[in-house]
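hey team, just a heads up i'm posting the complex here instead of the shared drive bc the drive is being weird again. everything in one block, sequence lines first with there labels, then the predicted structure for the whole assembly after. its two chains so it's a bit long, scroll down
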Amino acid sequence: MTTANSSRETILNLRYGEQTKPHKLLWNEQIAALLQHRSVRNYLPDALPDGALESMVAAAQSASTSSNLHQWSVVAVTDPVLKAQIADLASGKKKDANGFIKRAPAVLLWVADLSRNNRITCEAGADTKVHDYLDAFVMATVDAALASQNAVVAAESMGLGVVYIGAMRNQAKALAALINLPQHSFVTFGLVVGRPANNPEKPETVRPRPPQEVVLHHNRYDAARSMQALDAYETEFHKFREGLGMGHWTWKDSVVYSNKFEYMDGRENLRHTVVERGFKLL
Amino acid sequence: MTTANSSRETILNLRYGEQTKPHKLLWNEQIAALLQHRSVRNYLPDALPDGALESMVAAAQSASTSSNLHQWSVVAVTDPVLKAQIADLASGKKKDANGFIKRAPAVLLWVADLSRNNRITCEAGADTKVHDYLDAFVMATVDAALASQNAVVAAESMGLGVVYIGAMRNQAKALAALINLPQHSFVTFGLVVGRPANNPEKPETVRPRPPQEVVLHHNRYDAARSMQALDAYETEFHKFREGLGMGHWTWKDSVVYSNKFEYMDGRENLRHTVVERGFKLL
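-- predicted structure starts here --
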């Protein structure tokens, strides 16, 4: 595991392994902190420290929000009964796959939220037609994501661990009902937060990423260069999985697996749910 | 303007003004840095420092990505001719509204990108049906947003300024063609980056946010409490605009204005464009 004092070399080795590393890189404590992110699924049951949630929300609010419209909300679930119900909704067919949500002290549900502004516009007697377009859905979704990522950076600075839960969209309709979401809003994803258990038998490490050439393009998109740069990642990813005793898979194998329909486990109904909840996606 | 050494009180006053501030708040340098974010639209023409882009991308790659699928890309546009064309696309009817993009050294186009994984899945002879669902569109959009927000935090730590440009969706079709985007991808938003000009006559300050009660809910969504907490923001927002000589508007006025149809300026075609680009949004 890396620490606050880990060297640049150690950090870059965990993030890129033996692949080509970005050769010129500005470095400071902030960059070092961001590069050391890892997802945590093993939590101590301790409640969040006093003020931690408020700091995360202040950080979230400080992120940019499209046209200063604040089209997001966050529902912080700490009630154990409710949290267990939510864990079950997110686990779906994979029984207790997200059972760690029950043991963690909190799960934050990040909401793409047009509801406030829809109501304000209605009350002013104006037309809310703009909210019927796909663009409004994207605006609110992006707002929620920018806010949550700032909250993640804040949480990690306080020694907390987090993991995003996209499976909160598996049973989007039931989840919205459970937490009384108003129309024109939906839970975009969840974020579990708590103190990492740091179980030495189940270490949760930084995951290797592909070389920068896979995602970074200059001036125009270069698909051939991006695909070519993935070759190195195949080897690196395979090595990482083997190290964790996870079996012989390359990254491309995992991509193909993720596209199996049964992996959706309810998410195929997302469109139906959000339309029912007032988004028209025109 | 705040500095790295600004006090907690100064920072919270800029962020929340005279509204109720979160009374218990854990504080450290990271939280202070996040809370001091401001959007910058006034740039020096200097090129990005060597290695700054690579650090931003390393930070972006270190963000969580749904199921480790890396369904995002970023196109860094620094070519002046291309950058000017992009600025014009984003300005649309509001002639040169985003003209500052021309003067800044770079605009990063954040792409929700299923193209790589679609190709990998096709090449493996497997079904790409999962990509036809709204959920895949959301996954890629969220991936792009989490990555970009980490890049923003990295950029600001290097003394750079940024501003998000949602207007990159106004002419989504033309923009995709201009930068050779492959099918199954679209530009979710842009991010201008460069050294802030810090023009004393046009100071770019931290914008006040509503009290936390507006966006933060405990266990279940409480619409009444959220709407009530907005009252304080009406006054605060009005005061902020008056301070900048921007005229008599409350926040709710700005919400109603943002819902005027002409404000979309092409974004009403987003659905048409993304469907044409291979997303089915089922």
